[in-house]
Amino acid sequence: MLENFIQSLQEKVCCTNDFQDGTKFRKKDRALQCKYIELNQLYKKYIVLDIDRPGAAFLWEEKGLPPPTIITINPEKATCHYLYELKTPVIYTHNGRRAPQKYYEAVDLALTHALEADLNYIGKFTRNPLYSNHLVITHPVQYELEDFQEWHLELASVKKKASHLDCSGYGRNSTIFHKLRFIAYPVVKSFTNFEIFYGEMEKQAFELNAEFAVNSKACLAAKEVMGIAHSVSKYCWKHRHSIDQMKFRGVMQLPKEMTIREKQIAAASHTHHQRKKNSLEHILAAALALKSQGKAVTQKAVATHSKYSLDTVKRNWGAVDKKFGLYIHAV
Questions:
Q1: Could you say which of 190, 211, 245 is where a domain stops?
Q2: Are strands 36-38 and 70-73 parallel, antiparallel or unpaired?
Q3: Which site from 68, 185, 208, 262 is most exposed, i.e. has the minimal number of CB atoms within 10 Å?
Q4: Tens-digit pLDDT profile for residues 172-181
Q5: Are residue 6 and residue 143 in the same domain, yes or no?
Q6: Is 38 helix (H, G, I), strand (E, B) or coil?
Q7: Is 80 within 8 Å of 56 (Cβ atoms)?
């Protein structure tokens, strides 16, 4: 199990013996002599939890939860880091798929709640299980993300914050998301490396989150903030070459005094009419193309040519008839 841990690390690893002295990149063999070591953040091989309570080494057993692959114990305080090894690492590069990332984050947060672990721990640095003064317990187990469902973790409710957070979590989540994306849009083109861009967005997201504390509101859990930062970063990076030509929310220029509910209704109506208009335009263009080629303008032919369903064409057939003077509505 410890050999797998060593192999999961990058060749140069950020590490430290005391965070007050800062961190430093060292070659893997030297980094493994340090007290704290950074896990690979681009290929996440472990779900890591900080159990900040004395005597936590067997807490997983008390709560009927899966055994961690590695338990690293602080001998002075008897607090622990739990490391659950994954058979398949979750990729967090810009090419990584968001679905497995969300699944990883859901399992991570569910385990955090179930084991009453530190919600503000982000799983970046862990106690080094090979450090000479740490006590270590290992179990010969690896997991697929799906395996954790066997322990009835509440994955469906992982978006709920801890009990000390107020019920406005959705508002805070949304606030950080929208503020961060507007920070990201104008600057993404100035970056040449996704990891550096993501690091900057993560920093900005945590600064936005800290504003809630200034305003006497509870902050979001660190893992929630990281998820927002990654979503925004990945989207902006993917569209960085065209992002300044894209249209974002606000095209309707709705009055500020409108309530959110009123804006949602207006936006839904606008979207419906816009889609209907676009459908009709494509259907008319298909009918014109058929007519110009000397082909019969039938509902079935227009549906095939426009790639819309026959039902959609039928709903718009009156406009086609009016446009082209059709009198025989053959199918």
A1: 245
A2: unpaired
A3: 262
A4: 777 888 889 8
A5: yes
A6: strand
A7: yes
Rg (CA), the chain: 27
Do residues 183 and 213 both lie within one domain? yes
CA separation for the pair 226, 126 (Å, rounded): 17
- CA–centroid distance for 80 within its chain: 27
| Structural domain harbouring 237 | 169-245
pLDDT, residue 265, reads 63
Could you give the 3-state DSSP secondary structure of residue 94? coil
Q: What's 196's domain CATH number?
A: 1.10.340
Give the tokens for residue 53: 């309570």
Taking the complete model, does pTM exceed 0.70, yes or no? no
Measure the CA–CA gap between 42 and 109, rounded to whole angstroms.
Answer: 19
Q: Which residues pair with 14 in a beta bridge?
A: 25
Amino acid at 89: P
Name residue 192's amino acid.
T
Q: Could you give the 3-state DSSP secondary structure of residue 165? A: coil
Q: Closest by alpha carbon to 280, among 247, 256, 308, 305?
A: 308
Quick: pLDDT tens for 19-76: 888 889 999 999 999 999 999 988 999 999 999 888 899 999 999 999 999 999 999 8
Cα–Cα separations (whole angstroms), residue 159 to 45, 54, 210: 23, 28, 19
d(CA 173, CA 154): 20
- The two beta strands, 12-16 and 70-73, are unpaired
Contact indicator for 49, 66 with CB cutoff of 8 Å:
no
